[in-house]
Request: fold
Amino acid sequence: MKYLVPHSLAEASELLLDTGNSMLLAGGTDLLVEKRAGRISPEAVIDIKRIDNLDRITLQENRLVIGALATITDLLRYKSLPEELEALHDAGKEFGCYEIRNRATIAGNLAHASPGAEFGSTLIALNAEAEIFSIRGIRNLPVENLYIKAGKTVLERGEIIAKIIIPLRNNSASSYFRASRVNGMDMAVINCALQGFYDNNKTGGLNYRVCLGAAASVPVRLPEVEKMLSRIDGTAARSSEVFSGIKSYLLKTLNPRALSLRAAPFTKKVLAGNLIEDACCKVRERLIK
Amino acid sequence: MSIPLHIRINENSYNLQVEEDETLISLLRDRLHLTGVKEGCGNGECGACAVIADGQPVRSCIILAAEMEGKSITTIEGLTETDENGNVSLSPIQKSFIEEGAVQCGFCTPGFIIAAEALFMRNSDPGDEAVKEALSGHLCRCTGYKSIFKAIDKTVKNRYKT
Ligand SMILES: Cc1cc2nc3c(=O)[nH]c(=O)nc-3n(C[C@H](O)[C@H](O)[C@H](O)COP(=O)(O)OP(=O)(O)OC[C@H]3O[C@@H](n4cnc5c(N)ncnc54)[C@H](O)[C@@H]3O)c2cc1C
Ligand code: FES
Ligand code: FES
Reply:
């Protein structure tokens, strides 16, 4: 195996194109595990950690931009995280353990494409985009369109997630919840990220974006559930009616893989309903202070 | 093929040649005989292999040695001091672990102590939550953790007595 150290994204992209069976190396918390387990045997790893400025998190006028090398720890320590993006903080707190968070990058979390990855569902609920760099050009892609199946994204040879761009949304709040077998150090049995937002004039009721992780081979948005949630009007009776409607809908429609290591399909479906309720209540609490 | 690596380990500088796919743990244990670094799971889950790299605790089983170019590493061996007569003195955390009986088989101990040491480097007076966060993801099969937390608590308290 070759170990290559590019100093720019262009060089990294070129190396990816020129070297057969090569892989980018960021924090290595997936790559090294896969390699040591014999599931991958790249001819070359291209360590992007010596490219300058890729670890930045910056707040711009109407968006938060997360660089490819920003780690979970960088995110948790970031002081100017806008309140409406609190789901990112929730997800970071659930992620692995302190030492893993120090190495693991958010971009690597997307690129590895585990069905239950913390930041897949979270960034989809927040309507984030990935800026994808290649020497052949740059393209922006909604994170929602990144996944093909477990472990596989639409990234082509030579393409690198350079940035993750999260739009800020007035009058919105977000949250993330996960169910796992133990606290930390295990991937989610199921996870749920949720954004609640008013339209610009705050005239209508609340609207929602909901995404589940580990409910299928890729993170899934639930447009029907989003519609059902928007019928909540704040009264307890109405909310419990909506939540029980959602739970029966999920029992009928979700189709988690039967051979999951972590939980049987029925358990996952029940937990999904509970997490959506928790996440929705948290968002309303955060929004309607 | 091998590549050059310049690295500081426990305050000593090394210019080495490493294999491209050599892990940091393998460099430390197999070549430099720093066998206080333990390999439990080999896939990032147990914490036995933790070392401090430029002030941050990391897991040496899932890091390539080559990634550590220019870095400064501290292993459990680097926490003790040896005087001119060859007497070894342990760090305050190591002493508390012994006093509190926080070591049974001892396999997890270097990892816990490294994590605690790194915590004190970034936070001189950590509360319970910070201690829990720092040790999360370190597994111990023997002690039931209580004595480990006691040992760390004692180290915190001793600091403020002296
Ligand atoms: C003990 C342990 C606990 C964990 N706990 C969790 C958890 O709780 N939740 C969770 O979601 N994950 C968890 N993980 C998985 C892993 O830590 C994350 O997926 C992590 O975010 C991966 O990032 P990385 O920088 O380490 O990626 P790497 O391992 O360096 O790379 C992962 C993959 O992405 C590719 N890649 C990396 N960066 C880019 C880029 N910028 N553009 C394109 N491709 C890229 C690599 O080629 C590789 O295929 C855990 C792992 C371990 C070992
Ligand atoms: S041996 Fe490295 S974490 Fe278990
Ligand atoms: S003392 Fe035996 S594993 Fe911790």
